[in-house]
Inverse folding.
């Protein structure tokens, strides 16, 4: 390796005045915060695409992506009841159980 060659870490730190390193650090911070919040796993990815241009130079296009874990939305409880047309509708009320509010007028009349 000659004195003019740069290693991988130098490449990340010197490309566009450290833009790759800053983008990786920002993504890492977002992912770690989401991991701490949710307890699930996340990832940070770096993709470097190289190509030779018409002048014979090598162009490098970096791409930093990340996947943050999402907080689960949780389970909802519903009852399915037929709507009279063969389809089911969702309800928060159990169709097989009466409601105290439905019986309130009769309870008041007895009191």
């Amino acid at each position: 390796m000659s004195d003019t060659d740069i290693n991988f870490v130098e490449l990340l730190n010197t490309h566009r005045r450290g833009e790759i390193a800053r983008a990786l650090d920002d993504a890492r911070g977002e992912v770690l915060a989401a991991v701490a919040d949710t307890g699930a796993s996340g990832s940070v990815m770096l993709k470097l695409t190289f190509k030779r241009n018409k002048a014979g130079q090598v162009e490098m296009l970096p791409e930093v992506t990340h996947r943050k874990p999402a907080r689960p939305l949780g389970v909802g409880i519903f009852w399915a009841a037929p709507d009279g047309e063969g389809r089911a509708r969702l309800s928060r009320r159990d169709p097989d159980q009466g409601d105290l509010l439905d019986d309130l007028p009769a309870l008041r009349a007895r009191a």
Q: What stands out?
A: The beta strands are 43-52, 58-67, 79-82, 88-91. The mean pLDDT is 86. Helices lie at 8-14, 19-38, 100-110. Residues 79-110 form one domain.
